[in-house]
Amino acid sequence: xxxxxxxxxxxxSVVCLVSCGGLTNPQIPQxxxxxxxxxxxxxxxxxxxxxxxxxxxxxxxxxxxxALGSQVGIYDYNEGNxxxxxxxxxxxxxxxxxxxxxxxxxxxxxxxxxSDMGLNFTQKVSIPKVTQTGSQTVQxxxxxxxxxxxxxxxSTSYTIAVPEGLPSIPGKEQNTSISSILxxxxxxxxxxxxxxxxxxxxxxxxxxxxINRFDANALSDDYKFSLSAAIYAKxxxxxxxxxxxxxxDARDGGTLRLPLDVTGGIPGDxxxxxxxxxxxxxxxDASYAHxxxxxxxxxxxxxxxxxxxxxxxxxxxxxxxxTIKDMSxxxxxxxxxxxNAEVGEGYLALSAELPAGxxxxxxxxxxxxxxxxxxxxxxxxVTPSSKLIDKKLxxxxxxxxxxxxxEITVTGSVGFEILGATIDLRSGNLEIGYExxxxxxxxxxxxxxxxxxxxxxxxxxxxxxxxxxxxxxxLPSEMLNYVKSIxxxxxxxxxxxxxxxxxxxxxxxxxxxxxIKARFVNTLPLQSDINLTLSSTVFNLTGTxxxxxxxxxxxxxxxxxxxxxxxxxxxFSALDKTVDHYVDMSLTAAFENDxxxxxxxxxxxxxxxxxxxxxxxxxxxxxxxxxxxxxYSGEQSLEGFDLxxxxxxxxxxxxxxxxxxxxxxxxxxxxxxxADDGSALGNLLGKIGISGNVSISYDTTTTSAxxxxxTETKTVNLLKDADGNVKPINTVKAVEWPVSGSTIDxxxxxxxxxxxYSFSFTDANDGGLAKIISSFPSNLKFTYSIGLTNNGGAxxxxxxxxxxxxxxxxxxxxxxxxxxxxxKIDMAAILPLSIEIGSDISLDIMELxxxxxxxxxxxxxxxxxxxASTYQEYEDYIDSLESFTMSYRMNVEEFISGIxxxxxxxxxxxxxxxxxxxxxSGQKEMVIxxxxxxxxxTTYPFHPSVKLxxxxxxxxxxxxxxxxxxDAAETPKIGVNVGLKIKMDGDTPITVWGGKK
Length: 997
Hints:
This protein is mainly beta.
């Protein structure tokens, strides 16, 4: 039951409060048993919705800046009533005098710093170490060759005839030895010569003497024949030291087995002494004589283990040279890192030590390496050396070219001379080891077209688009029309550029010029400089004026700051004023053949290259203004001043927004010129005026009865008076606007007093801008045909930066300097948040809380179930409910006056349809009957529509709810207090919480 009760709690809170966010501090009963006809009540908590997200100054400022640009400012405009009112400032026209501030306002540096379009980047260049080792096992075929040499002594087969007994000799003891018979057959002494002084054998090694009888004569019962043998050193003719012996009953054949695995081994040269005895009663009867063959051989298991004092050469024994194969050094980890490189420190070595017990073995190795640009390089011997093989190739100054392969192969052969050697095969085989190491590169050529490093080429060869696409920076028409040229200082003998105090005198102030301030890091080694060029045709940064940027190597891992600049003379006079012009700034790198060349690279090091633009530098000295009586036409979009922008994101359908009207939106314009105050700048510019025509134009579209749309362009001349006369533009002194976000007291505000503004477009002008906006026009814009008048003065005026006063402007915690002198037109609109609703408006609350509720989430279940609930799962519980009541109290009137709301909840699938009271004093209730609950819980998905209706009326957002004297005050939130009551109707007591059901 616990699960079911949670679902009902969720349903009750979500259905009624879906427009207000989640409940906070819910009170959940722990274990309540409900009996027949009982009622259960619980305080469900509170919910709130933050209105500052829609009507706060930050929210409105963001909307306006998104539509009109970052220079929009917004202020709390206190008219002394409780209507939330904002003043919106928007600069719409400016003649550049303080060219530094003007160029900064182009936000060129922000575009160049942007992550998606800018030139900032960080790139790592990781060069792995090349350190490889390996070995190959060499099996010198000594054991088998020695075995073969010993076996060659046993090529002869011996035949002996043995009678059944020997004749007796009178006076002597009966002779039984057959030595004379063996001697006659040549089998009494078998000599063995082997190519070593001593040979030790593996356990189980032996010489076999096989005796086979091949006659057909019958064997007498008393016939006895035995054979014995022993091994003696070749020079032990007196047979004093028997090394090995054996005997066998050979009556019907047999095998003598002479062990060779004796301690200390067997001499390389030895003889086998064979003897035997015979007994029988038919010594002279040939019919009882027997014939035997005798064959000597080594057993299959016989294996030499220690061969001392080898007496034959490798050639004599047929031992071939060892061929090195499948030995290579992989450079695969370097692929993609660079095209080619010159090794600074590195080597490739081969070596072999004599195993324990090996002596006097000699080796001659002829080894070459190839691959990765290395061709047939011979590895030389290391001398002197105590090793059997010791060869090393110094790779210094060798050139590696990975386009020709990614491995170095080792080929060649090793010849061994075993004459006089001692080889102990028990110590294992000979191992030839190799080692390769490259720790430093004198020079490296990185391919900037490779996947790993193309970003360097891309970022260091960057150009702003000049086709009007995203990222293009358009030169304002005011700059092209009125600025003839810009100077950045005069060069002096000390190599610096100085600014002017006036036309003839240079000051001591050094001009920083036109350029960039940036941070960079380049941990690549010294001499690995990256050279860049910053150029622009529009700013005359071409040829010798182009800015050379050098990022030196070995800067350490900490970013360094530096300024790069030039001091060009920028001339706009030749530009065609009838077409658009864009800043054509390019950063190019001097990469020959798209290659980055580095020096003294340490392998196993991760290098870093980084470049981060901090700001553009526009430290100008002079600007030449064209003040001839030429009129220039232009326009500035005002489409941000529409109800879609100001009220967007509130869940109001596009068609319903057109039912809204702004009753008031007076607009004031400020044509500002410098005052003739006796200053150097005032003497130059004080007589300049602004003349021409200014208008607001917009398009309206009407639809005829047959559905045909007609668009009409309408124009309102802002300089016409009530009699239709066009008034001249009244210029005013520069307006010092307060910091955006501050409060302006209307009672003390001088901005909108007569003569303090140049012209206006207020509600008195046939409804003014409020009426135009309320008609939902398209293509709303400020249009002008404006020129400067100099009252007979020179048509060209040179303004020096030293003439322009600066004032500190603090915004937040950042203080900037902004020129207090300007030739510009600002617009200030006063927007009271009083909204007329012409006819009923419906707000989709579900879409307001979930923008995809009617789109991609159209099948989403409000109760967050994964599948359909079944009736059986809820049957016992639902049948016990008579009704489900939600009580609530809202505080909307605390923030919005004149508001009337109606709330309707419908769900076609479950059949739910409820009109819910919202506004009014006292507590409200919404009742859901038991059958409705059942329909909701057994419908999947439960996806209701929640519509909030605003009837025709005028509503006002209260200033007191949004503007607080205490900065720590809580933001305005519509709050809801919610209670829950369940009335039971059944016979079975049900445990709501904590029971088994």
